[in-house]
Amino acid sequence: MDAAPDTAVAPPPGAPARADGRRTRWAEHRRARREELVTAALRAITRRGAGIGMDDLAAEAGTSKTVLYRHFSDKEDLYLAVASRVNRRIVRELRSAVEAAGSPREGLAAIVTTYLRLVEKDPEVYRFVVSHPFLDRPAQRDPVQHLTGVVADETATAITAHLRAAGSTSAATDVLAHGVVAMIRAAADRWISTPDRPDADAVARDLTDLAWGGLATFLDSTRAAPQEDR
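Below the sequence we write its predicted structure tokens.
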């Protein structure tokens, strides 16, 4: 069960200035407790599956819906907090993988492999995030679209830097990167829902080969363009 601090009362409005320290500690406690509940929710989703409801989620987290709603305004707020945590982890690990790459192809392979490994590591959490189970209006507040955009931006930055170093002067790399990421996500969604699916590394190799076939052609064309203009 939850510890007593969850029943604490917030300082009243208009309290003296000397209460600022208490308000700060209260705000920090609430922030930390909210993060703990997100971690507990992720564990519950992993154990019970992406279709878990609020009652079961609270029970698996060792708390109650009353406590959850004390820290999250509604089920959408909880869902968005979980999705935000997942998004931050994906972006952090993608950045780390790309930074270690030494060429455009290695950068692309790092992005594809890292993304698929994260999906494979916890498929129920991935399904939970992409299926928007607690969103009443997913089209208006879809964190998955935000993640896709962030991942595409990271991919574009990495690929553009490598292509520039290889001599490309084209402005189309950002558009191509977003197209590559859309392909990766569509493939990941299909792959994770396929029975007897191959492992992540095998799929990553094939996806990298497929995407690189187009990017390599693009790189060759941008290298050749200045010569054709002479």
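The chain has a mean pLDDT of 78.
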